[in-house]
Amino acid sequence: MKRKICIVTGSRAEYGLMHCLMQEIREDPDLALQLIVTGMHLSPEFGLTYKAIEEDGFVINEKVEMLMSGDTPSAIAKSMGLGVIGFADALARLGPDIMVVLGDRYEIFAACAAALPARIPIAHLHGGETTQGVIDEAIRHAITKMAHLHFTATETYKKRVIQMGEHPTRVFCFGAPGLDAIGRLRLRERRAFEKSIGFELGAKNILITFHPVTLEAKVSGLHFGELLKALKRLNDTKLIFTKPNADTDGRIIITMINDFVKENGDRAIGVDSLGRLNYLSALKHVDMLVGNSSSGLTEAPSFKIPTVDIGDRQKGRVRAQTVIHCEAKRKDILAAINRGFSTKFRDSIKDAVNPYGGGGASRRIKNKLKNIGLGKNLLQKEFQDIGCTP
What we know:
six-stranded parallel sheet, 16 helices
């Protein structure tokens, strides 16, 4: 009988990071891929990105509707409650042998909360990381304690998961699976990329990916406003905005992007979702990534381009030498962008190494999911005490 591996995805970014792992599972004759989509994938406002998953040839086994119409704190909390109910039913129908989740979003927390009493082993990707400016920090660590297998992206993160009491024999550092797509996909050439998004690149180009800072009330709009003020000061620079996730205050940023693009249509475009292929193709052709997305720390270094990381959203994460950090102030942002464009800085990162690995993580993760023992021994977790006296 085939081992059933259930993947849960609630956002375009998460799907892009797990796409190659999903392919590995689907193509293994000893495994059966199950797929649950939820969250933004099912929202017209965020582009109904579940359709892109189907276009990639994947069969969606279950859809868990959980997004409320608002992005207030209470709406997010209610969405989590709806998610637990929906995942409980979906998992009961599918009966997976292992459920695989990635990261730190509230949709994933809901899935894990439903899997735990159902005695379904949880495999967690990208644990041990820190994002001190968002609620994701606490959610990620909570998922670590609910999970039974851990696949971290760096040795630093592996040590942190073990520090949280997880047994070393259950923690595997295989690198970031999202990097596998860079080597496997045939990325679009410049003209084809321009045609696909309906926008012509210029002599200098910036990709902007900015998400709300959910631990600081009512500052996301202020921070993003400072970024827009800095971008207005740039000359002869084309701007590609990707719109944010369904987080608290996300709609504020979306409105600001739409207004900016309307006023600067000759040099700016806003895209609901670039998709995996176009996002990586964008990184191939732009000169810089600006914002506060984790992709600036994980994927962008592989393209040897600068990342201007703004504010505290990614504070605490392992960084390549391609990353320039700055405060969410117009003057600091503009100075960081100018530094990123400088010949001196660009020369200094030509041989930069991506600390999140060089590929192959998806296959290693798949093989571990395939061969790990199931049953009582996997479900029962031993807390690993470090330096504690009984």
